[in-house]
Amino acid sequence: MEKCIEVFREDIFYPEKRDKINEKLITVFKTELPAETLNKFSQNQLEELSERVLQSLTIVMEFMDKGIKGLLSGDVTLYMLQSIESSLEKHHSNLLLTSNDLEQLLLKQEEANKIRKMMENMKSPSKNKFYTQSNEKFKNSVYLPDIGIDVPMTTNQQSSAFTTHIDEANLERLQARYNLLQEGLSQDISKKKTEINTVINSVYNEVLETAFGLDKYRIPYYGIKYPERENPINLFQRQLKIEELSFELSHAKYKSTLESLIKIGKADQLASSHRIVLHWLKSIQNAVQEQQRIFLRRSSLDNEKGKPSFYILQMPSDKIASICVMHLMKTLFRQFIRDLGDPNRTDSVLLDLTRDFSAGNVKTPAITLFSDLGDLFSKELKNHITSSKRRGGITDKIEKHLLVEDSQIGVIPKHTQLKIGAFLTNIMCKNLKYSVGRKRHLLLRTQVLRQSRTKEIGYVLFNKSFIENFISEIDKVHDLNIHVERSLPMIYKPAPWKNINFGAYYLKQTKMAKVMAHFKEANNLLRKGDLSEICNALNVVSEIKWRVNKHVLEMIEYIWSIGGGLGEIPKRFNERPITAELFRKAKFKDKLRLIKEHQRNMETHALRCEFLLRLSIAQSFKNVNTLYFPHNIDFRGRAYPIPPHLNHMGADISRGILEFAEGEALGKEGFYWLKVHLANVMGKDKLPFDDRVKYVDSIINVIHRCAEDPRNSLEWIQSENPWQTLAVMREVSLAQKSGSPEDYVTN
């Protein structure tokens, strides 16, 4: 069956190949079926079987395609078919019973319609079609052929059956029968249809949930190979699903991991970093739930939107907990790495390594944390409300795939955002704890420093040594669930920029210009100025189609699997962890060396996190043949891709791993400029153009060797930009070997 599905996915989109699917299916049967089974089938039976398989697969795809959240062809797998079969079996009895009831009701409706037509004929003499029965038994009646009812006639009627009206008594009898049939019939039919639709929707939703759970970024298991041939509604709905991820992905992963391990009695096997984050999420969720109950008891849910409680009650407690913990971890790591990267902080690192957990703190301004949390809460609330309304059937907010501004959804004033941020920070300070032995300590504490006689600044302090150990635990398992970035590449064409607030992503609110909020003059100019040309320029670069270079990605995965440390890929593991105990036991002359080694380990960890994020995104989108990178501008007017980790303006590894989705033939001069490009990425960009081409020609044998076997021929890895070099070497080699470089199609 897996082979049949593969043939179906490959050929269903091409009219010229579609007619040959049956032949290919028969070939699959002959190849895959055992000989003793195959001998039982004649050629006609094999053709009939292939026709049935093709028809079934087509029905599955069309059924899912017609749904408002239809699936893509990449979702049609054996697992998907088994899921559909299981769901159908579960709901089959209810569906069959309801269908039988509906059939009976429809028969009654058909009988009622016939009686109604008959009564209309009775009232119109020229249309009477009744005739007298010749049988002696029915000589005193008129037979109504449409419904098989015999209506008795009077003596006068017997003499002129074809021209006489049936008396009023008989008409009343028919009317009574009609009323009896019609009584509640429409409501019953409507009810049964609703029940059938409910069952069908249940089957559909179960399969949909299975499909959307196949990959963490909601990408089909087999990717999206022919996006231009997919139903646009499907692609668009899938894009909305990707944007809805936010913090839910991290929270759901931790929650499911914990629940599965608890079920089998092995929760102790969670990494300590996982257990800490799970405990924090649960603690904050419980604290927020308690506060929400207090707000409700105090009747705080009113129309006064200036109160933080009004907004906090609109957000689920688990999502608030995710916002707090994930943002806190991001803030702590960023601050911690910044401190480690400062050469003037060496003494503080030395002190932290020699002290216990209660010593050594890193601080961040409280107002910054308040502002960031409040702003993040505001965005998440808007997304939550918009998503909930969309799931509830409000789809008119998106017209022609463009986001429509709605100023009433999730708008929180800035001063209220700060209050919400302070409220969430207070909850974290009271509930986030860590253990040292049997003792429990608060992770965060507040501090107020007097800057002048009239000005005081508040800080939030956290323990640096604890975070250092926490990072080392995460580093051991290379787990990046807490680092998930929601600004991902898009699989559907980005929404055109219309103004400074709306464009690019469809659900995630994104600003066209990265301008600080306190830069009021610039913000006023952006709101009042004519931005049409800037919008058009951003739309052009945002609509460029990209895809992942699978050959380069495969080589990156290989180097990472053997331990990294080559081609700008960081080492997979540190040589040794530098602990406080090791530092205390070292001799004085070795302590400075240990400090430097410890600092290198932390810098490597930062590089490792960045690399793993990039690799994770590339692996998830590798089978999607069309990607988009929405752009916005900074305060200087420079355009940059919004997805931060994987884009064509990133480091060498990001540039090498991406290529254009739409290839073009090189043409007469294209091969010349492809060689120039190869020389440029190899560091020969200062030479004249002709000399660059000569340089490439001089190493053509090396290029062929590296393109054919990059694992063993590592000359490419010594270049200035190794991953771009490898990608271009392969293109130059293939173009050269094609025999007609000007006709070679390159991406």
Give a brief outline of the structure.
By secondary structure, this protein is mainly alpha-helical. Helices cover about 55% and strands about 10% of the residues. Strand 1 and strand 2 form a beta hairpin.
- Write the CATH fold name of the domain at 230-479: T7 RNA polymerase, domain 1
How many individual β-strands? 17
Number of helices: 28
Give the % helix.
55-70%
Distance from N terminus to C terminus (CA atoms, Å) equals 34 Å
CATH class membership of the domain at 230-479: Mainly Alpha
Based on the structure given, which CATH architecture of the domain at 230-479 is correct? Answer: Orthogonal Bundle
Major β-sheet strand ordering: 1-2-3
Write the topology of this structure.
Blueprint: H1 2-11, H2 15-18, H3 21-32, H4 35-38, H5 43-66, H6 78-122, E1 131-132, E2 141-144, E3 149-152, H7 155-159, H8 168-182, H9 185-212, H10 232-243, H11 248-263, H12 272-297, H13 308-312, H14 317-341, H15 346-354, E4 361-365, H16 366-391, E5 398-399, E6 402-403, H17 414-431, E7 433-436, E8 439-442, E9 444-450, E10 456-463, H18 464-477, E11 513-514, H19 520-528, H20 532-542, E12 546-548, H21 550-561, H22 580-585, H23 588-620, E13 631-634, E14 639-641, H24 652-657, E15 658-660, E16 664-665, H25 667-681, H26 689-698, H27 700-708, H28 722-737, E17 745-746
Helix pairs in contact: 1-3, 3-5, 6-8, 6-9, 11-12, 12-14, 14-16, 16-17, 25-26, 25-28, 27-28
Structure characterization notes:
The protein has 747 residues and is mostly helical. Among the domains are: 230-479, T7 RNA polymerase, domain 1; 495-647, no CATH class; 663-746, Helix Hairpins, CATH 1.10.287. It contains 28 helices and 17 strands. The strands form 7 sheets. Strands 1-2-3 form a 3-stranded antiparallel sheet, with no helix packed on it. It has a 3-stranded antiparallel sheet with strand order 4-10-9. Strand 9 (444-450) and strand 10 form a beta hairpin. Helix 27 crosses helix 28. The longest helix is centred in the N-terminal third of the chain and has 45 residues, at 78-122.
